[in-house]
Amino acid sequence: MLSRHPSRRLLGLLGLVVAGIAFALHWRRNPSPCPYSQRRWIDLPRPVITRSRVRDLLGPRPGERVLEVGPGTGYYTLPVARSLEPDGTLHAADVQPAMVEHLQTRLQEANRRNVEPVGGDAQALPYADDSFEAAYLVLVLGEIPDQERALAELRRVLKPGGRLVVGELLPDPHFVRAGQLRRRAERQGFRFEERDGTPIGYVARLSVPA
């Protein structure tokens, strides 16, 4: 039977939409990582910022030491780690202990030994200067309260000539536009090299001048 009060249903739906918009605006103004309880969403397929596109633009090579910031449950971790074999290492730093534990379990199940998950804040990375040949973060930069500080930290831990790949995709409320990324990264000493994507998302590569 059809509802005798369609206006109430409409108002209810409108209320949900308004609440959703309000939540998105609040989340954008108060950046924070995706909660572990919502991890199922970060394992969904990602158009534009695919695993292959990220890996190809990053160009990981056997024997390199690479950093992933904000790996979450490891959506990009395993493909990149395989490209570093036989003697390269992928360090995966996440600010959420639950994500680090989840990733450790996933790596054990996959018998993947060249990944080192660690707890770490992108605004104060637990690594020495010039530690890595490359680094990447996907759907992460906008979640960091001080993006320029995080970019400065990435600049610090990358070797001269090192590569940085950043991926962003709408409708992420923390979406960082390519122009914003370029301006902020260049202020921290990066050189903008390439952008691959569409109007709704992109993967960009930057580098540290040699």
From TrEMBL:
Domain of life according to the entry: Archaea
Biological processes annotated in GO: methylation
Entry keyword annotation includes Chloroplast: no
Keywords assigned by UniProt, alphabetized: Methyltransferase, Transferase
GO molecular function: methyltransferase activity
Descriptive protein name: Class I SAM-dependent methyltransferase
Organism: Halosolutus amylolyticus
Class of this enzyme: transferase
